[in-house]
Amino acid sequence: MKKSFFNKKNDDNKNQSSAVLLSDKNKFAIVESYKAARTNIMFSLSAVNKKIFAVTSYSKGEGKSTVSANLAISFSKMEKKILLVDSDLRRPNVHNIFKLDNANGLSNVTGNMIGFDEAVKRNVLPNLDILTSGTIPPNPSELMCSSTFIELVEYISNEYDYIIFDTPPIGVVADALLLKDLIAGFVIVVRERSTTHGDLQKLLDSIKLADSKAIGLLEVGCSYDSKRRKKGYYYYQYY
Q1: pTM of the full predicted structure?
Q2: What per-residue confidence (pLDDT) applies to 4?
């Protein structure tokens, strides 16, 4: 990737995330829900021979960044080489979840300020690398449409077994849909008693109109329900 010496001060005034990361200390039902999600996503990826997918939601605060982080951790436990990319260039949160420096990241690489190898955080956890969002740019959509962004995706595709993009909520901005030609599809995060049926339908319609697809729904904040067979806080369903 090209490099220049231009730089900007990053906005790190966001509060630290209270997200709970997946570990052996989590409840069995939560760990198993992520394993089920991982398995179904892998089948969806293999069906289209792609290794990249995105995680999104309808609106902010529904837990997509936490889900992105925990899916990345779950995938990394298979001893595969995983890259988590924070492509929410408006309200990034991955660096907060993992407590990483965000002075440089995706926006800086895509803006030809630094190279990928200088921006990526290696082995944040075993087998897991993370590319944070970097400096919040004035033109997120333009950066994600750029030839440099496409070149970056092609480059990392040759370096990793699986790549996960944490994207902005589709109900707020359309940035996530700009990835449609580069990914297998979207994992949609919905929050019980927050995301409405109308919200979900609008989200699915937007994805369909963009000629992309949803490869799964991951519901968070749900309690046990024997009729729907939910077991704990997370519930995965193939779409």
Answers
A1: 0.84
A2: 33
